Amino acid sequence: MIDQIGFLPKKPLVSLDPNSAKDAGAAEIAKDFGSFLNGAMNNLNKQHTVVDTLNDKFVTGEFADAHQLTIAAEKLSLSLEMTVQIRNKIIEAYQEVMRTQI
User: Fold this and answer.
1) Nearest to residue 33, comparing CAs of 18, 47, 17, 12?
2) What's the average model confidence in pLDDT over 66-86?
3) What is the mean pLDDT of residues 45-51?
4) Which of 14, 34, 63, 70 could anchor a disulfide with 57, C-beta 3.0 to 4.6 Å?
């Protein structure tokens, strides 16, 4: 069975409701964003471990389903590519903030 690729958080980092009683401060948003990135990197690491395990089993003949191995490897590749793109956007936003004149 093919699992859905889930890179986005289950809940938004900041409440979009303007009537929300709780205002999220910068420290809380940074903590939530940091935990989101940490969870995403842990998920990427788990995917890498699964692909390595399937690859080792395929090479030794314990696992004969090449389709599942290919699907797992493509999911890992897409997740890694998305992670790199997110990193690039974060660096680009940081550089833009640093160029801002006060």
Assistant:
1) 12
2) 92
3) 93
4) 63
22 CB contacts (<8 Å, ≥6 apart)? 15
pLDDT for 63 beyond 50:
yes
User: Could you tell me the pTM of the whole model?
Assistant: 0.67
Structure tokens given for 23: 């205002």
75 near 5, Cβ under 8 Å? yes
Long-range contacts of range 47-51, CB-CB < 8 Å, 24 or more positions apart? Answer: 47/72, 47/75, 47/76, 47/79, 48/76, 50/76, 51/76
Q: Which two tokens stand for residue 25?
A: 């401060």
Q: What's the pLDDT at 21?
A: 44
CA pseudo-torsion sign 42, 43, 48, 51:
positive
